[in-house]
Write a structure and sequence with these properties.
Order of helices and strands: EHEHEHEEEHEEEEE
Structural class: alpha/beta
Number of helices: 4
Largest sheet: 6 strands, mixed
CATH superfamily: Metallo-dependent phosphatases
Strand content: 25-35%
CATH topology: Purple Acid Phosphatase, chain A, domain 2
Number of strands: 11
Distance between the termini: 30 Å
Helix content: 10-25%
Number of domains: 1
Shape: globular
Radius of gyration: 14 Å
Length: 168
């Protein structure tokens, strides 16, 4: 699904909490900046949010506020969006990406300790940030809902550069 091997701009978003209009604004912003695949770090909130990702190369994980997980997974399958449950281990442009919500501290510690991933994308805190844990580039795009500043992230897999964008 994501094996391009030529450089990819990845749009990363999280914590949409069912806010369809705000999610649409965020995805439009990322598309306008050249994102060609999209990762949602959980707390989708409703199937209507997934409609905003329909037709795009996209994947998501569940967050702690995603109560109807079976419904979200079934709906995502109908739309062609990959649902990875609580944790996704993806390869995008030859880079290994851990995708999670961020509410499981043991999983986070395990991923960092293993040092097998190029990126760890997570949300949950509603605060954007990035850093390095050894060789792992840790990226939190912030939140599309319930944040002082609604943000998403754009990751360039060639330069490893992350740009945070204000989405409304």
């Amino acid at each position: 699904m994501f094996g391009y091997n030529r450089g990819v701009l990845i749009g990363i978003l999280s914590d949409t909490h069912g806010q369809v209009e705000a999610t649409g604004v965020a995805i439009e912003l990322l598309c306008g900046r050249g994102a060609t695949c999209f990762l949602h770090c959980g707390d989708v909130g409703s199937p209507a949010v997934l409609d905003q990702l329909a037709g795009l190369s996209a994947a998501f994980v569940w967050g702690n506020c995603d109560s109807d997980r079976t419904g979200l997974q079934r709906y995502a399958e109908r739309l062609g969006i990959a649902c990875h449950g609580a944790y996704g281990d993806l390869t995008i442009d030859g880079k290994r990406v851990a995708l999670m919500h961020g509410d499981d501290g043991r999983l986070t510690k395990m991923i960092v300790a293993e040092q097998k991933h190029d990126y760890l994308c997570h949300g949950h805190t509603h605060t954007r940030g990035e850093g390095w844990a050894g060789r792992v580039h840790v990226i939190n795009p912030g939140a599309v809902h319930r944040a002082k500043e609604r943000t998403v992230a754009l990751l360039d897999t060639v330069s490893d550069r992350v740009e945070f964008l204000v989405a409304g």
